[in-house]
Amino acid sequence: MQFLRMLFTWWHSQTLGTALTTWRHGELVGMDEQGNRYYRDKNGKSINGKTRRWVVYNGDVEATRVPPEWHGWLHYTVDETPDEAGFEKKDWHQPHRANQTGTPNAHRPAGQEDAASHRAGYGSWSPE
Length: 128
Fold this sequence. Notes:
Strand order of the largest sheet: 1-2-5
Distance between the termini: 60 Å
Number of helices: 5
Order of helices and strands: HHEEEEEHHH
């Protein structure tokens, strides 16, 4: 079953193609606290003059699961991995929370709760 999920879907981790590319060309450079693994091309193969970098998620593929320190490395903002740079979490850093969009816990700007009640009295426009 795991093989079929890998063959036909990408949202549960890596596809078969990503697994083969990682096996053949990937050099593991680190892991985060969620178990995501970060790779760079061991042959120096580049995209736009920069060595390829990628993440293999531990579980569902969701971009918000990449912590800020690794996000900077993945997007070429910094050249050193958090391990190489000696990154230390501060006491004000928040633990990861899954994307809350579409749930009751989603962020709602001030006034959002009242907006629906104000619109309730309006009907759709129709030409007369």
